[in-house]
Amino acid sequence: MLRTTIKQSVRQFNANASSSIKCHRLEGKVAIVTASTEGIGLSIARRLAQEGAKVMLSSRKEANVKKAVEELKSEGLQVAGTVCHVGKAEQRKNLFEKTKTNFGGLDILVSNAGINPAVGPALDSDEEVWDKIFDINVKCTYLLMKESLPLLKCSKSPSIIIMSSIAGYQPYNLLSIYSISKTALLGLIKATTSELADKGIRINGIAPGMIRTKMSQLLYESEENHELVKMNISMRRLGMPDEIAGLAAFLASDDASYITGETIIVSGGTNSRL
Ligand code: NAP
């Protein structure tokens, strides 16, 4: 019942938001968004396409890819999709090849996939969990960036966007390893900014606060948790995926032509740093 109401309000929010989008900053551009069949990734894919980009969707499950592609196509958007578990080298290779074949090149890479398979204190975590989180959240982000370069180098205004988290600045208590991995992404962005700038490529990060998606479901499903979470947010509500998507479109566009090496927090005023 609660889940149905949430889904309905998300849908309503999407419908209202898309009718108010007036910019077409991404006409002629091609984008890849990983993990884009639901949540933040799907919202970003939709927004980039609404602003004129051709967008390649992807995630691990074929049925999810098919559903997301159909949904966005039914809204008149130019999208295609392919299966890509970001941890699988062959599937990443195929993602870039399919993007080139379908859309002729690549201008925008949004590395959005991120996982958190375990909850618990930092010093209780085992090696397997550490490896899994770092493999997907950090190593695969790095590999995707590297593998995108041959296509991005041919673009007139290439840009990379990495999905970090506010937890990268202020670790969440029971999500410590996940938080450390998101801090590592801040470092990855800083460490590659100059090298990428030499190639004319901008790189920026987005650090969302609590956003209403499947990943954060535990935090809002029970009224008690929901109230506790909201107490730490100045705006006293969780964010919606579309409220991340607007920033992604801006960062990918030429409006952000002098912004690189930054990670921008979108958190409704959650405390994170001075
Ligand atoms: P979500 O709603 O749970 O969506 C997950 C998406 O990722 C689905 O499309 C899923 O599709 C795909 N996926 C999962 N594992 C994948 C993999 N290994 N390779 C490719 N695709 C994969 O998640 P979300 O909340 O939107 O999170 C998206 C990003 O935002 C993550 O990096 C997360 O850390 C970050 N973030 C989220 C929040 C938040 O509060 N929600 C806050 C800060 C940062 P399949 O099942 O088909 O693979």
From TrEMBL:
Entry superkingdom: Eukaryota
InterPro entries per the UniProt record, alphabetical: NAD(P)-bd_dom_sf (IPR036291), SDR_fam (IPR002347)
Protein name stated in the entry: Dehydrogenase/reductase SDR family member 4
GO MF annotation, one: carbonyl reductase (NADPH) activity
Species of the source: Atta cephalotes
Gene name of the encoded protein: 105620169
Family assignment from sequence similarity: Belongs to the short-chain dehydrogenases/reductases (SDR) family.
SUPFAM superfamilies, alphabetized: NAD(P)-binding Rossmann-fold domains (SSF51735)
Signal peptide span: none
